[in-house]
Amino acid sequence: MKLIETKAQKLIDTAKAMVADKKGLLAMDESYPTCNKRFAKLGIPETAELRREYREMIVTTAGLNQSISGAILFDETIRQHLKDGRSFIKVLTDNQIIPGIKVDEGTVVMAGHPREKITEGLDNLRERLIEYAQMGLRFAKWRAVITIGDGIPTQASIEANAHALARYAVLCQEEGIVPIVEPEVLMDGDHTMERCFEVTEQVLHTVFNQLYAQGVILEGMILKPNMIVPGLTCKKQESDNEVADATIKCLLRTVPAAVPGIAFLSGGQSSESASARLNAMNVRFKSKLPWEVSFSFGRAIQQPALNIWHGKEANVLEAQKALYHRAACNLAARRGEYNDKMEKEY
Fold first, then answer.
1. How far is CA 92 from CA 60, 70, 78, 85, 139, in A?
2. What is the pTM of this model?
3. What's the structural domain count of the chain?
4. Which residues are catalytic?
């Protein structure tokens, strides 16, 4: 019993640390295809060495730990080293940034539902988590994808993805690893903000029902949801304050107070929009919420730096300045202190 209690407390302490001090998480867990796709758009050669150099540029950014509490890595990255021989895990840990790992193996078409996706990776997950824990990784991430369209999502898709998220989460906690639970309702399409609210509410209710059924310790997990936004091609695009109001309303209906933190995904929003909407939530609601409202952004932090770096060592310092700036903007957004002037100062 004491061992169980000790493990539970370790999970709770790590989860709290991941959203402490108004910091957030950096998602640098792009798979080979995703990272290569982003390189290809900029004409950067799609090699393992350049992926390593890119991630070295990120983790060696001076002062990154002022805004970032944890970094989500990819299996390739945790096995790579800086030019000086130090592992990425060691560099992050030495800089007081908690290292984590993406453990899902991507999405495939769901059987019987050709327009919907299911996330794979459960079959050998226990064995992988044992290794990751031994390597010093303290949290993990699993992403489920929900698409809005004509007649979708179906209840079958929502329940299957929620069940997989819950099984992943309890396996993580079994090994002392904090699970980030990421049910993403995609922005793709012309659906309204109201439709996004309706689907997200249904998804989150189902996810937490499954987490409860599997015995997940809610105090030892982090939720990584989408914001409530209209589809990218919807004619009506609501203001940042309207997005903030709808998002918090949905979360208050669905997320138990026991969860220590909500770390939003950026989900295709521009860097500026993601920061402004996070800021609006913290300005309008931070004193009234049971959980920390934070960020777990990937492209919304990385993209400006990637555009500058362009695969060239001569651009590293300038790219690092851009990365530091975007992380600092989101630290300010967590405090409710972000504004347009910050963008002009850089």
1. 9, 8, 11, 14, 13
2. 0.96
3. 1
4. 182, 224
